[in-house]
């Protein structure tokens, strides 16, 4: 080893002799995006993020991704454990706010777009990762939605009451927003609206 002729196998044999009980440390789990699905998907929009949403778009009539620990104030929340089914139950109301589980983001976004196209909700806002490389982004969002790229990171609330910023950028995708709502939101939150196609 000292003469530069060693190999990884040599190092392993030396360690077996010098430290026979040594174990390789378990890699520390990156909290975001790994682990079990419930841990990954139980991230809630903080109250301070919601204040300008309420001010610009109004009160939330439906939170289809409802959770008992979520601070989102909504007239109605779909909660899976209560027998609600966001894929079967019709969405409704003047304003629907959606912070979907990121593990099934595309399914939620398709459902939001479908419910908006059907006229079940006048305005639907979705807080999602900024995945500008996807076909869905280019074919659907560019044509039917207003997309606001957020500056900085939102610190989501987790099940333990802590908060953590995601390791990726976010955007607010809004179906059915008015020009006045977009201006009000942009006046309150750092970022910019993407020009429509």
Question: What's the structural blueprint in terms of helices and strands?
Answer:
Elements: H1 8-18, H2 37-41, E1 43-44, H3 47-57, E2 60-63, E3 74-77, E4 93-98, H4 105-117, E5 121-129, H5 135-144, E6 145-150, E7 156-158, E8 163-164, E9 170-175, H6 179-188, E10 191-193
Helix pairs in contact: 3-6
Strand content: 15-25%
Structural class comes to: alpha+beta
Count the helices. How many?
A: 6
The gross shape turns out to be: elongated
* Broad CATH class: Alpha Beta
Which ranges are low-confidence, i.e. pLDDT below 50, for 5 or more consecutive residues? 26-31
Work out the radius of gyration: 22 Å
Gap between N and C termini: 63 Å
Per CATH, what is the topology? Rossmann fold
Domain tally: 1
Report helical residue fraction.
Answer: 25-40%
Mean pLDDT: 86
Instruction: Report the major sheet.
Output: 5 strands, mixed
* DSSP E strands, number: 10
Pfam family, one: Dam
Organism: Qipengyuania flava
GO molecular function, one term: DNA binding
Protein name: Adenine methyltransferase
Offer a concise description of the structure.
The protein is an alpha+beta fold.
Verbal overview:
With 197 residues, the chain is an alpha+beta fold. It has a single domain, classed as Rossmann fold (3-Layer(aba) Sandwich). Helices cover 30% and strands 23% of the residues. It has helices spanning 8-18, 37-41, 47-57, 105-117, 135-144, 179-188, and strands spanning 43-44, 60-63, 74-77, 93-98, 121-129, 145-150, 156-158, 163-164, 170-175, 191-193. Strands 4-5-9-6-10 form a five-stranded mixed β-sheet. It has a three-stranded antiparallel β-sheet with strand order 1-7-8. A hairpin with a 4-residue loop joins strand 7 (156-158) and strand 8. Helix 3 runs antiparallel to helix 6 (179-188). The longest helix is centred in the middle third of the chain and has 13 residues, at 105-117. The chain is elongated and about 75 Å long. Mean pLDDT is 86; it is low at 26-31.
């Amino acid at each position: 080893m000292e003469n530069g002729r060693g190999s990884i196998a040599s190092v392993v044999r030396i360690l077996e002799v010098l430290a026979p009980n040594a174990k390789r440390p378990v890699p520390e789990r990156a909290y975001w995006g790994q682990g079990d699905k419930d841990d990954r998907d139980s991230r809630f929009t903080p109250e301070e993020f919601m204040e300008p949403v309420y001010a610009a778009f109004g009160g939330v009539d439906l939170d289809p991704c409802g959770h008992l620990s979520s601070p989102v104030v909504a007239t109605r929340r779909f909660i899976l454990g209560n027998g609600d089914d966001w894929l079967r139950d019709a969405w409704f109301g003047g304003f629907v706010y959606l912070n979907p589980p990121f593990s099934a983001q595309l399914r939620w976004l398709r459902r939001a777009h479908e419910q908006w196209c059907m006229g079940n909700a006048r305005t639907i806002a979705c807080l999602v990762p900024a995945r500008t490389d996807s076909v869905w982004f280019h074919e659907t969002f560019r044509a039917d939605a207003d997309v606001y790229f957020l500056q900085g990171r939102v610190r989501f609330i987790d099940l333990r009451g802590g908060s953590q910023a995601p390791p990726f950028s976010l955007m607010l995708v809004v179906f059915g927003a008015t020009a006045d709502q977009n201006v009000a939101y942009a006046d309150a939150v750092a970022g910019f609206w993407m020009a429509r196609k």
